């Protein structure tokens, strides 16, 4: 955790649940290391709840290292990677080269069947404070220059992005007593499906505090723009995690929020979220002290900007393997994303596919219809990005289906069967939950009374008793004020047993809330999946392909993005309807040819058998 | 970006424009995992003897049954005569041959139904609208039948050779048609509505994605009226004023806009005059002073003796109605009593009815005796009916009127400029039929403007228009009801999808752009 001391949030919490459903680590580690758990968007509907927590950096690191170092069959070796070891490509796959290991800074070589690069902000990383710029991946760490040059030489299209981090403030120098205090949730909701609770009680968790900027902050920023080269640069920074400078410039004369977040249980540092800044250090200190509650604040470390290389993500396939180099996978900021959760989402997919690739198994790809992970990777690989990409719930078209509560039923079974990345324990828990939910829902559908009777049974509900219509228990559960507890009190037999597991009861309520809309969404999902099922051959050379009529512009776009399915091709801007139909024709021909090919070995076998028969007769 | 394929429905979620139905459906006629059912006029546009309307998709059987209720589905692949009626109103539409092709033995490989109806625009439009009202059905996209057939392996590759060109042509034609249709008032309206919705949606989405996590500040603060963020839940107990604010946020920004939009859409949909005209016929009223030859004109146009014709003024005393086909348009032709004063009570009542009918007319055929223009009756008629009709009424529209000077056979040869002050007019002789072609041409132009010209093929687009506007309105209704903000946003997404289908454009990026323009979002 090299920037903010928190995990999750809106959209990001969804990603964490999905990572967890595939048995990725970050959610479980966060359940062991959090110091302030809070679900955002509580009042806006369970489809957009954002699980979030302040995390103790030190604990996270300890717990993560413990978990990793205790993973059987895993060897951990630390060192800066300078170069890739490349060999001849495998002819049956696309790609100009094949990676077979890495060269470390000390010249030693580590050989590998596949390699995942997660370079963060280190590729030609450059730190900026005021007018000073110096090469560094993050404060105190060397950048990766050799590796960046290698990738560029191989022919990867490289772009540049920037991000920033706020200064750190000494905890004891902040006057919290005059600030708004925010307390954590009670009870805490764990990130992981396999945890019922988190490691720490709500009353032992730490609060966060809120303060605001003021016109004096604006003045300092505006007066010192000439001392601020990060802001003037043309490199694209995120629109949604902007520095205080860009906030002041884009939205002048306004007050901006600053959250004061603890960095850890026993840390004496405060992370002022919202105060990302690249002014010279002494001006940062000046700016901080004109904020309410921070009048006497001591700055321990200045905020700074980072500029770094990323590879245009249209150069990777949805399995995160690069088009150019076989068995080389990219994940995280190297693909133009921002945030721990986005990185974790790609990490788990890259890891799974790196291993599947070695075992000659088909890649594990999550579709847009299955998860936020799918949305993230599809957006990156078909559209690319020119600003650090962050997950929002509004990016997911099937938002009502892709909820944090049901990530396990969407992904765990696939992960177990296709990728082998899911533990038996998790698989069994998910199976139990799935069958309990199905049973519960059909039970709720089967119980039907007249609305007048329901009103008598549950007087607290807003069921109108005017018209007496038959209502299923599932319909009653849709009312905002009705939950399983209330419903089970009205109809104890057979509903009582569904209230014994809190998670099950909550999930039944959520399923009821979205039931009618989900019916239609399911149909749309099926139609998208039909497009996704139409695979485009991977080795298609769009630029020279003869028996297909495509404009040069379309050819170039397809050549660069290399969509794997008709669905992905249709999402590429500029690819026309006619082009898609031509591609479809091509897919069908290929499929037919393949079907014919598959028949051939059978004939061979028969011939072979006949030979043997003849032999034996002889 | 072209967002298509045969699964334009799949966009429904991204930019939802497929019909989202409020009714819960039994799974009886809809196998899970199947797509939407599409319908379209498959024969050529415009007037023809028989028009073929086709549906394809899992709800085809249901659609066929809905329109032919209470009869059962006909046997597979056998033509049967059925009375078609509107499933909503029960109003009979046509007696038609219907065919039922259960999949996979059908053109597209899906369940298909065909309606062979009489080719009048009113019938076709009636059946299309009736189909649009069946849950699960939506108008087909360009080339969608062919694409579905292709997807189900019903077309060989050689047959598909020309498909891309076809689709290109169709989408191009449709785009142009949409543009043409959208040029002008309706287009501006639609674009305005779509913008409003995009903005409303952006605000709701911003509220969902950024209000808590990233201290979405200014935009929401300005509109919400007070600081908003985590502090709302500071103690775990929500202060009542905060709760109120939270519930009133989308209302304060999006909701008032949405409400206005709902009203506008409702008004527009209620003004289905044009559609009605096409179905039941435009009201064409023949009026004029007594003995100008109105009844002769009615008989001439309807090609049958509807009215008694005599040289005696005041022969027609009541309003006589007859449905006719005027230049390819259905019309209800009304013969009225000659307008004059100071006659007997029966004729006086006839005159009163004639005047009332004139007020309701979609088009007035004003008939004057060309040989008697100077008479007081003619002058009076010109002053009280013809001239006022040319003036704009308060809501800015004009009463449509064609001035016909009958009895041109009585004019001395070579006299074409009858009267310098006379408004534009047509010369006609009901006796000889001279000038009838000119009149029919003029009628065609007027009726086309009134009903929409079926020969330029707006029938389908009109029903598409209605379909999407209604879908949009339904979704806005759901938005209002939704307590769950994710559901509310979904309803807005659906509504906007319907509109963007009429106007084009509207991806996630567009929403995000608005979010980042309007709000300062940052953690």
From TrEMBL, chain A:
Residues 594-618 are annotated as: Disordered. It catalyses: 5,10-methylenetetrahydrofolate + uridine(34) in tRNA + taurine + GTP + A + H2O = 5-taurinomethyluridine(34) in tRNA + 7,8-dihydrofolate + GDP + AH2 + phosphate + H(+). Residues 601-618 have a biased composition (Basic and acidic residues). Coiled coil: none annotated. Gene3D superfamilies: FAD/NAD(P)-binding domain, GidA associated domain, C-terminal subdomain. It comes from the Eukaryota. Keywords: FAD, Flavoprotein. The keyword Flavoprotein applies. Homodimer; forms a dimer in the presence of potassium. Interacts with GTPBP3; forms the GTPBP3-MTO1 complex composed of homodimers of GTPBP3 and MTO1. Component of the GTPBP3-MTO1 complex that catalyzes the 5-taurinomethyluridine (taum(5)U) modification at the 34th wobble position (U34) of mitochondrial tRNAs (mt-tRNAs), which plays a role in mt-tRNA decoding and mitochondrial translation. Taum(5)U formation on mammalian mt-tRNA requires the presence of both GTPBP3-mediated GTPase activity and MTO1 catalytic activity. Belongs to the MnmG family. This is 5-taurinomethyluridine-[tRNA] synthase subunit MTO1, mitochondrial.
UniProtKB/TrEMBL annotation, chain B:
The keyword Oxidoreductase does not apply. Residues 281-448 form the TrmE-type G domain. This is tRNA modification GTPase GTPBP3, mitochondrial isoform X1. Gene3D superfamilies: P-loop containing nucleotide triphosphate hydrolases, Probable tRNA modification gtpase trme, domain 1, tRNA modification GTPase MnmE domain 2. It comes from Bos indicus. The keyword Nucleotide-binding applies. It comes from the Eukaryota. Belongs to the TRAFAC class TrmE-Era-EngA-EngB-Septin-like GTPase superfamily. TrmE GTPase family. GO terms for cellular component: mitochondrion. Pfam families: MMR_HSR1 (PF01926), MnmE_helical (PF12631), TrmE_N (PF10396). One of its GO terms (biological process) is tRNA wobble uridine modification. InterPro entries: G_TrmE, GTP-bd, GTP-bd_TrmE_N, GTPase_MnmE, MnmE_dom2, MnmE_helical, P-loop_NTPase, Small_GTP-bd. Keywords: GTP-binding, Nucleotide-binding, tRNA processing. GO terms for molecular function: GTP binding; GTPase activity.
